[in-house]
Amino acid sequence: MNHTRQTIQLEKLHRLSQTVMQLQDIPRLAEAVSHMMEDYSHTWVGIVENQQVVYSYDENHRLEVRGKGLIGWVAAHGEPLFVNHVDKDARYLRIGDQIDPTCSELVVTIKKDDQVLGVLDLHADTHDAFSEGDLQFAESLAQVLSVAIQNACLYEDSRIQAERLSLVA
């Protein structure tokens, strides 16, 4: 991997870490990651809900991946996967009738211990877009996201508990 790409990855990891640790709800966290990664790769953060990976930025934009495709495979197996020619991988799932510009895809789990909390999905419109270095970067980012998601869940639990207590009082 060239030095410039490593430098970009380190800068991205640093900026993303600072940003996502301050966010207290998961849809905003997922949206921030996608936005901050725009100049690096098309990126989605999917969260596991009821054993399904869900991409949800608001009520109007929600996509459930029911154990299918590269994302479903990664969520089910808990292992990272990068495919530099998605058109040659039978697991790749096209969504709808739209023309899909994805040529390469890299998917890693976001975990707490052995529990899959979600997936980090990077995709590119060129073949051979990802390398082992990109995989290491994505896994590092997934570790940061794991902590941020856990913090957001704790914040939400605390908010709900505070609401309950205020109703009782």
Radius of gyration: 17 Å
Could you say what the CATH topology is called? Beta-Lactamase
The CATH architecture can be given as: 2-Layer Sandwich
Number of helical runs?
A: 4
Strand arrangement in the largest pleated sheet: 3-2-1-6-5-4
Number of domains: 1
Compute the average pLDDT.
Answer: 82
Largest beta sheet, briefly?
Answer: 6 strands, antiparallel
- Tell me, briefly, the overall form: globular
Distance between the termini: 59 Å
- CATH class category: Alpha Beta
β-sheet strand percentage = 15-25%
**Low-pLDDT segments, ≥5 res:** none
Write up this protein:
It contains four helices and six strands. The chain is an alpha+beta fold and 169 residues long. The chain has a single domain, classed as 2-Layer Sandwich (Beta-Lactamase), CATH 3.30.450.40. It has a six-stranded antiparallel sheet with strand order 3-2-1-6-5-4, sandwiched between helices. Helix 1 runs antiparallel to helix 2 and helix 1 packs parallel to helix 4.
Helix-strand blueprint:
Blueprint: H1 3-20, H2 26-36, E1 42-49, E2 52-58, E3 61-65, H3 69-77, E4 81-83, E5 104-112, E6 115-124, H4 132-168
Antiparallel strand pairs: 1-2, 1-6, 2-3, 4-5, 5-6
